[in-house]
Amino acid sequence: MSRGYTFQYRGSAPVASGQNGPTAGARFKPLFRMGYNHTFYDSDHGRCPDLQASPSPDCQSLLASFGMVFKAQATGFSVYFDEDRTADLVNSLKRRGMTGYGSDAGYWTRLTFVLQVANASFVDITDLPITTNPNERNLYANNSQAHAAVQGRSSGGDGAVARFCQGRYLAASDLFPVVGSEVTLTVPADAIQVDVTDISGAVVLSQSMPPSPSPAPQVVVLDLGTLPLGRYGITVVSDGGGSTPDTATSLVVYTNGTPSPLCLLDVFLTQPQPGMDGVYPVPSLWDNTPITADDVGAIDYILPFDARATQWRYYIVSQARGSHLTDLAIAGHGATFTRQPAPILLPSGSPAVLFTSDDPIKLRRIPPQRFRLTGQRQAPNGADQDIRVDCLPAAPPNPVWPGDTPQGGVSEMYVYV
After folding, report:
1. Orientation angle between helical segments 57-66 and 86-99, nearest 10 degrees
2. pTM (2 d.p.)
3. Which domain of life is it from (predicted)?
């Protein structure tokens, strides 16, 4: 990882001792950088301008207490820390490991960020279910899932980076149901308790229920309003009539914002548990090795998305009334197309010759494919006219229509010749 650079904070007046926030004259270096990467933007080295991050309310409080600085950038964001407060940061993390959420499990102090979409076509161009709705499901990732990438780019520069996800890209498996501060559940009649656990597994909210005299399901309302935004497990404990209670757990993302966020990220400041995988800004506290400012930060993460692959459909329509298209063919590098045997009647009443790509094609901001259309048009009087379109239009970012699979889709192009 590159060590990055430092900058000096110059306030308009000295900050009082013990007051939260950056101190005038403080020297900052990157704690970490998060770069948004999307293969749709391959022509821009993957740099994606479609997301906007903001710290959650609890994250804002933590940043202030640590004297850190959050900076949003065009294709990512960065968090900076005061080099002179490194010892305070490490000691604070150790104390929080003994007194904070999940204190019985390790060092779970984390910075939480919500990401909103600045491009209405983001879901269309991204390899996610086409029905993805931020009001219903959100992506979730944290740096315990982060793993090294061979080469990449981040918002801070080029070089080795860590992918901030459990796979190569964020995917459908990273989507979780969204809940607000009030959660209404329908639970079985024999349910005796509902527990809410945070990312560490610690129970942060529990609600017991008296035995129900009715066999009808019960309704339970949970108030998450005092909890930080994050991913939680909701476990329903039922009597079940056996020697041990039955349990059923659902993972949800508690988030809010206007417009509705699409993604929630947790950045654990240090390794939560011994031997836990991931990439962390502060070295592990489990071996009690002294930590200096040189050991902390300068982590480059990328939040990677893959472009959606769609079936391309070309509808070829003759502009000459009464004419007939013959011997049409589409050729080019990057895909092959099959012509449907019978014309398709469009809503306008015009017949169209339909070509479909044999395999899905990745969407790109600047598509590398170049397809050529050739053929003939036969006029009503029998005269033939050659047709040649050297560069057919590529699939646009939207609309993308549902296809045979949730991950795919259909891109339609109408070509009038």
Report:
1. 130
2. 0.88
3. Bacteria
